[in-house]
Amino acid sequence: MSLLSQTLARVKPSPTIAITGRARELAAEGRDIISLSAGEPDFDTPEHIREAAKAAIDAGHTRYTAVDGIPELKRAICDKFLRENGLEYTPAQVTVGTGGKQILYNALMATLNPGDEVIIPAPYWVSYPDMVLLAGGTPVIVEGAMENGYRITPDQLEAAISSKTKWVIMNSPSNPTGAGYGETHMRGLTDVLMRHPHVWVLSDDIYEHLVFDDFVFVTPAQIEPGLKERTLTMNGVSKSYAMTGWRIGYGAGPVELIKAMGKLQSQSTSNPTSISQYAALAALEGPQDYLETSRAVFERRRNLVVAGLNACPGMTCPVPEGAFYVYPSIKDLIGKTSAGGALIADDEAFATALLNETGVAVVFGAAFGLSPHFRISYATSDEVLTDACDRIRRFCEGLR
């Protein structure tokens, strides 16, 4: 009898975590490493949020809380959805989890049966397909081509829907591409979904506040109110407020779904960290000027990286609408050989050779379901990004 479950055999470790770990190992060996693989803001959590956490400790808020969030935080989340997205929810329609990842996982685990299909636009965040597999479902991948701004079209969505479709996962702005679905693009998809009342919508809005130029963020239930009763709108404080380690995510949707997710959470992790919940409360209710400050920094970094990568021979880097990633194409580099003698057979080989020969760690596109590309996270300083782009350019110039 095998020790490990057959379910676990269906999934693979996170490639982004693996590459980040490898970069740390090389740095510990004394290599000059620039890691652009982790999706994590490099700013400190704003001071008023940190002070709120300290105050929570001093006030004795260090015990168990309600399984899926303290009442004060749930009310603040309701206020946020109404204020920023025009969506009205009650606290009974809100759940708080240990990061946005748990909200997504709980929703899929609570609803999927063997044979249920989940439509996932590619490029996708690496965890979506494996979460579906862990829950017993079947991922259905729909490719959003670079020529379409990495967005799927209404016709593609229509063609992917079957009688077995349970969910479609939307992520805008996207990890890994930074691509955003504006009102026109989103309405095209919601019009399709309105014709298929058995399909639920899981909207991952974690990068909502990181949008650039004149892009205006929208979420599916906001664009089409008729979808609200079959939509789970997920968000969190990790990216917007530089609170990745605090591990607070939240979602809002129909009461039946929220109760089911709470039931699952009660038998797994129970409540999110009490102190982090009070910190998240301060984030949502406190000053919001940090959001614009950080957004402007990321927009400047985006421009720097896009220009730097487009100066690399054989590389094409589209301009993303949001998040803090770029997803350049390297199709013109496949088949070449690096100065160090490595054959660039695919984007994984490119990323491996780049790390070995220049010390720059990126994530290969196959991990996100669309090749030949790679992802860079530009959540680091201008100086580091400039150095990284220079190293990548020299690497590309050395390809033969």
From TrEMBL:
The lineage of its organism: Bacteria, Pseudomonadati, Pseudomonadota, Alphaproteobacteria, Rhodobacterales. The keyword Disulfide bond does not apply. It comes from Paracoccus aestuariivivens. This is Aminotransferase. Its EC number is 2.6.1.-. Keywords: Aminotransferase, Pyridoxal phosphate, Transferase. Residues 32-392 form the Aminotransferase class I/classII large domain. InterPro entries: Aminotransferase_I/II_large, AspAT/PAT-like, NHTrfase_class1_PyrdxlP-BS, PyrdxlP-dep_Trfase, PyrdxlP-dep_Trfase_major, PyrdxlP-dep_Trfase_small. Homodimer. The keyword Transferase applies.
